[in-house]
Design a protein that fits this description.
By secondary structure, the protein is α/β, with parallel strands linked by helices. It contains 15 helices and 9 strands. α10 runs parallel beside α11 and α14 packs parallel to α15. The chain is globular and about 60 Å long.
Amino acid sequence: LVLDAARGMKVDHVPVWVMRQAGRYLPEYHEVRNKAGDFFTMCETPSMAAEVTLQPIDRFPLDASIIFSDILVIPKVLGLDVEMVPGKGPSFPSPLQDPSELHRLKDPSTICIKEELHYTLEAIRLVRNQLQGRVPLIGFCGAPWTLMAYMIEGEGSKTFSKAKGWLYKYPKESHQLLQIITDVIVLFLIEQAKMGAQLLKVFDSWAGILTPDAYKEFCFPYCQAIERRVKEALASEPNFDFVPPMILFAKGAHFSMELILKETTYEVIGLDWETDVQNVKDICKRLGRRVCLQGNLDSCILYGDKDTIRSHTKKMIEDFYDSDGTISHIANLGHGVYPTHNPEHVGWFIDAVHEFSKPLYS
């Protein structure tokens, strides 16, 4: 169902999955996390990553799974140390200080993704085997600018002033770094597809902190190149006849939605809750762009009671519905589930998507 919606085919109801659906809001997740001892051990142990990936599929009537991993495995592969600090989030003990430190990064041409990220690829294989076709599996990576931001800032930030400062102090070297990251991302997404990922998602979590001009120069061209290079490589791969649909989620970059829709062919465009859905639909109509839009319920609505969640979900379904059938919809949150969400409330959201979309789509 998700694959049909992604490719703009007719569906009898809206499919739904949830960002961070395998995560800290689930008690069963903490059982595995405690066994692992730390976050990255869990990511790097295929059996654990597979188990956590499947937990929400076993609990809820979701329409897609997404491999349990982290966008920061790419900086790790490039040679930077990354830690997940409880209560703080990702932390780089020794981030990039200035362009003189770019030599610390590995040359992408020397990186063997099958070896360096074997754990994620093996987890994909395990999950596909265990899913037995119940739902499709999404593979993913972080976008170049988002990864660059962490590699320079060293941690999450409200301003990312160090990383953004690079763009203006060292524009040439910023492009050099973004290209290095892009080259590794392309290799990783290709291998995820070859191992069995049926959709591929690019998370650009910090796209929205850039100006429209900076987004156009330092962010967009690399996301555009990722789509082109991955699809071209997979299309020419011997004995590989399925090129997965691709999802771009440029969080906060609603100011560049027309650019994204006009200059890429990503089958699915993720929308956050700050985005005016009707405005995006209007752009699609003006451009004649067939697309699947994904999103975009505010995660905080899941703190509401059942009636509140159902009424907001119903409105979301109606807002995304396109009577012409040229814009399809995959329901999701506008970002991820929070650790303090009640799993029962997540279930109410999922059920409401199916219930309220069936009369519109059938």
